């Protein structure tokens, strides 16, 4: 397989030939939302490209897919129908595109040596407007970031009770809210909620949250629907149900969450917004970056969760930037997704164990990802600042300021990538800016 | 408004002229799923009926709706588009139908005195096959049944800590799973899950639940979508966002739930199936049956939850039948929805307080409804049997047997109705039969 492309790319681009993620965009060439991929600083109009290949080129590069059908699906306004075609088709399409974009294409006249076609299918990325990549049916958020779960547990229950007993045996998760999953770039209004101030005072006040937080997560998009109600997906088959991955910011209002979450879990403290990146990095693109989790739970795994391989998670470098209202940026966290202790295959096996159906486009969040190294590796401010008691420092307009939690006008940007320069597999950015509360 | 109908009806039918609920069905007259209403033992083909009215009859009975548009929407395969038209349209359509079906119709030739039209639009209910009434976007389950929350809390935490402090101040709820919301009549497979046996033993085993339970609830279907991310719906406007109500059984696996639910709430213990009735009873049909909740929380209500009326809930008589595999039925519970302590308007105001969007077709569950009078008024077996320690008696094939929790082959049927004989407003039935687990 080609690793170099004839397209001129920045060696630091997350969109090398090794990646080829998928997104939904409108462009000057096609004002209807449709599926695109990325190569360097360009998006590629896939329906047009595939639809105009010669029969021979399609047969060699993309068989056994039907050219008309594939081109039509690539014109969709969500990735759902494409995702539902299954891993074999995603793989075939990505490999066909790697041939077309590689430095020794089988059909040079199909794209590389054809200025007319290039003009019809290559669009500078800055001219594309992105849309939600998938129609999300259900959103489930897990809690598989070991160091985050331990640090937050220790903060609230003490070091010896940091992890609840069930944490060692199952991927703890809860049902989130799909109606508030939004695209990177969408403004996030500071939510209002019931808040109890001080301790020992059980009378809440209703007001804007004073503890608005981010949560750095990896999201997984479900490809095929599971067999149905009452049927499970075995862990060894679960990989076939994964379309790809996004960056995910599960914004949280810690004061609202703290008051409401017993006994039924987080509700308004979480459901006001969840931001995902526009680019879905395919499961195949991340396959070479599988690693062992950085930590093991030290108990025997229930049989239905035994995946039969040690390299269950990905070696994705993750970063969080905070940009103040004045436009000054500080990288406040650097961590890695190998700190997840459960894989998405295990999450799928657990989620369907009782027969709960998964559907194409469902979104699974990993849980907040933090490293073991303290505030600079924390995936949220609750953990980095010890619930605001030790504020972190960020740069503002020529001076250093502190943050316990997010302030109006702050922008959070998540980034993630694997691989060496020139062959990076990354997500681009997942951003959101805090807007002032609307209250009363 | 007419209260008597020219259609011959059983005085005990839940589908009197005062009701006119909506459902999705296929019939011998129209094999495509479409919208129907019910009168006595008949379903009525609404698209055909409305589409074939004279212009004058439509104008008088259904203006200002557009006849073509309304007829087209009534041919939909879900109620979503109809629901999104808003309360004024639902009310107008119901009132127009009450005229057509009432004992002094303005246009007798439109239906009553026209055998040809009657033959094209009236179908014996037994010939109709029902479908899911709405495409559910998100499903949220609240916990507003006061006596249930108190009884279960007392069981697990003792009488003095029965209600958590937040219970008095907000409608506690959690996000459920929309992919497993199913129509009445769908089989419910006994789920498998992680279960810890005995106490003080933190190693779970994976096996079929031994504590399969029902939960008697009222469900609310959202009509209009809320204004969007970051916008709230005020409690005094919330009624306009309600299309109607269904019976809802939130099946639960108590042993699975107990192990998994700390700290993020119920997950696999709840997400394997939630059953709803096919008929959506409109908000208007229940309006005459508003009453005060049977209990007050005794604290000052937060301003955003003050509804400005005391009659916030409905006087709906509710019953639960258990039918054994041999086909013998025992009514195991009789209670009333006035034991809900928060209204659906309050739930909507709370749900959107932080800016979480509601969408047409979203489903809100009330939480389990129990009365104060012990096992015979309990809305679930956890409560009726004190977690299995005091089994209830049910009738089987010529003998009395006990139930701690549900057994394979048991069928649970929920029923609910208001009003006097001849003018009943009811839901029909919401049923599900337990199928054996599929394990390993």
Would you kindly provide a written description of the structure presented here, covering whatever features stand out?
2 copies of one chain form a homodimer. In chain A, about 55% of the residues are buried. Chain A has about 450 residues and is α+β, with helices and mostly antiparallel strands. Chain A folds into 2 domains: about 20-130, Fumarylacetoacetase, N-terminal domain (SH3 type barrels); about 140-435, Alpha-Beta Complex (Fumarylacetoacetate hydrolase, domain 2). Helices cover about 20% and strands about 25% of the residues of chain A. Chains A and B meet through strand 7, strand 9, strand 10 and helix 8 of A and strand 7, strand 9, strand 10 and helix 8 of B.
Structure at a glance:
By secondary structure, chain A is an alpha+beta fold. Chain A contains 11 helices and 26 strands. Chain A has helices at 46-51, 55-62, 67-73, 80-84, 87-101, 115-121, 146-157, 254-260, 283-286, 344-351, 381-384; strands at residues 22-27, 30-39, 42-45, 122-124, 129-131, 139-142, 173-175, 181-183, 188-189, 192-195, 205-208, 212-213, 216-222, 242-249, 252-253, 274-276, 281-282, 290-291, 313-314, 317-323, 329-336, 363-365, 392-395, 400-403, 411-418, 425-435.
List the helices and strands and how they pair.
The structure is a homodimer of 440-residue chains.
Chain A lengths: L21 E6 L2 E10 L2 E4 H6 L3 H8 L4 H7 L6 H5 L2 H15 L13 H7 E3 L4 E3 L7 E4 L3 H12 L15 E3 L5 E3 L4 E2 L2 E4 L9 E4 L3 E2 L2 E7 L19 E8 L2 E2 H7 L13 E3 L4 E2 H4 L3 E2 L21 E2 L2 E7 L5 E8 L7 H8 L11 E3 L15 H4 L7 E4 L4 E4 L7 E8 L6 E11 L5
Parallel strand pairs in A: 6-22, 8-16, 9-26
Antiparallel strand pairs in A: 1-2, 1-5, 2-3, 3-4, 6-7, 10-11, 12-15, 13-14, 13-22, 14-16, 14-17, 18-19, 20-21, 20-25, 23-24, 25-26
